[in-house]
Amino acid sequence: MTDIQRPEARSPRGFQDRRGSDLSAERRIIARVSEVYERWGFEGLETPAFEYVDALGKFLPDTDRPNEGVLALEDDDDQWIALRYDHTAPLARFAAQNWETLPKPYRRYAYGPVWRNEKPGPGRLRQFWQCDADTVGSDRPEADAEILAMGVEGLLATGLTPDQAVIRVSNRKLFDGLFDAGGITDTHQRLTALRAIDKFDRLGIEGVRLLLGEGRLDESGDYTKGANLPSNLIGGVETFLASVSNSEASRSEVLDTIANIGAGLGEAGDAALKELAAIDRALNAMGVAQDAVKFDPTIVRGLEYYTGTVFEAELLLETKDEKGRPIRFGSIGGGGRYDDLVARFTGQTIPATGFSFGVSRLAAALRSAGRSGPQTRGPVVVIVFSDDDMQHYLDAVSELRNAGVAAELYLGRAGMKAQFKYADRRGAPAAVILGGDEIAAGEVTIKDLDAGRAQAAAISNNEEWKAARPGQMKVARSALVSTIKSIIE
């Protein structure tokens, strides 16, 4: 007999299956954040999962992997297409393609999965959901401030309290000024240095110093090439980072500190300070608290297309892993200004700014904090005893559904005990029992599974449980719907 070669049932690395409760948690976040976006006047937009590779551009930090960080394939017309790695690059393509017919500025929000060809790891997936809002066509700092204020409101809408998240803001032009003064003109060298600075909160000054120089060997043995900046410029960056590390300072105090550093920020740095000052004034006018949005010049963001102001939302909520050990989720969203992205298509500078919620990451963080929200409710389960009484069961389940109650007829072939176990695993609020005696008497037995779970927890032995029959009642058949609704409500 020939052995059958069977495939191993396994998920691809960096991808995961998600069931009801996880899906519900993400959908709640999307629904609540989208409601905020719409209230602020943003229009929904859905773009395809695939874009042409040249339209997406090569802006991801993980460029030493195949396909430059994206998941790509060659189409039958010999053109390469790739799954979108965020919602911003597709927006730039859409705006360029439809600019003549769009209201200007164009305000849109979008949500959906994105894909990245990154090295999978804890908390680092290759498919995850984001929910973005962007304004295309406004160079006003007030557009950045509005995005930030809306981001704060979105964080609160997800159920976080004001002390459980903060949005940190900086401007890439601050470091552009430092690089200009240090004579660094190579774009790749600048970007490598910015990505090193972006790891300041995780690696500290020593780790950043190594990455600004020749490179760093991490704990796993992987070596990351550095920016190879000259030592005097590395010292200047260190001085800058050390001088703005006061987390208690107000936004205006941070700007005053930067202005008085004397580290040679040049014209680019002066422009950044003016833009941040205008954002501060707008945030104050909108009543955005100092603790909700902070200026933190160590924030630079990893994506290459940012040109000015950048934001990063940090989770402050205490979270724990499966073993109860504290873990730090850090960033749960971010964004910034990208004034050159649309120009890749049109040759005309069209300013833009936006913010992205990491929906999957935030949902995972809330779950780790025991804040995943209410459990997903299963349907009411109608128990099956005999094929001869199938019409009665079908009538009951149809009556419940027609009344707006989620209900299902058990369609397996197990006995009653196993059917109750099934209903419990489904998270059913109740089970409907129509045995021969109930049908003959025009009655129905309803097992309130929620009440049964609560009462059974207080019962110490099996005999007591049998005597109490927790959560079980018998009512007239005509009272089925009203009784079930009272249990659910």
UniProtKB/TrEMBL annotation:
The keyword NADP does not apply. SUPFAM superfamilies: Class II aaRS ABD-related, Class II aaRS and biotin synthetases. Residues 38-374 form the Aminoacyl-transfer RNA synthetases class-II family profile domain. The keyword Cytoplasm applies. Its EC number is 6.1.1.21. Keywords: Aminoacyl-tRNA synthetase, ATP-binding, Cytoplasm, Ligase, Nucleotide-binding, Protein biosynthesis. One of its GO terms (molecular function) is ligase activity. PROSITE patterns: AA_TRNA_LIGASE_II. Homodimer. PANTHER family: HISTIDINE--TRNA LIGASE, HISTIDYL-TRNA SYNTHETASE. HAMAP family: His_tRNA_synth. This is Histidine--tRNA ligase. It comes from Brevundimonas terrae.
